[in-house]
Amino acid sequence: MKLAIKNATRMQQEWITIYKANKKYQADLMKVHLDNAGIEAIVIDHSSLLYTGMPLIGENSAAELKVQKEDEQKALEILKEYNE
After folding, report:
1. SS3 84
2. Mind listing the pLDDT tens digit for each residue in 19-57?
């Protein structure tokens, strides 16, 4: 029951895409850096849709890294350090 409540609350939060990757592992790696900085992040994996036969209309990435809106600026600064 607590898990369901936690997941419902999590989905109500506003998540912002801050990074798009061609491979899921790239987004996962950036997520580790954010986790280490204490920023909650999630990876949305679009690659599984490739196997369903459904087209990825307007989607050029296999995965997206998202953070809560209030963490956006700090997360972007951290990612910038690792992408330079």
Report:
1. coil
2. 999 889 999 999 999 999 999 999 998 876 655 555 555
Task: Confirm whether pTM is higher than 0.85.
Answer: no
End-to-end CA separation in angstroms for the chain: 43
DSSP state, 1?
-
In the chain, the domains with their CATH numbers are 2-83 (3.30.70.1530)
| Phi then psi dihedrals of residue 61, to 5 deg | -125, 155
Mean pLDDT of the chain: 81
- What is the enclosing helix (H) or strand (E) of 65? strand 63-68
Burial class (CB in 10 A: 0-12, 13-18, 19+), 30: buried
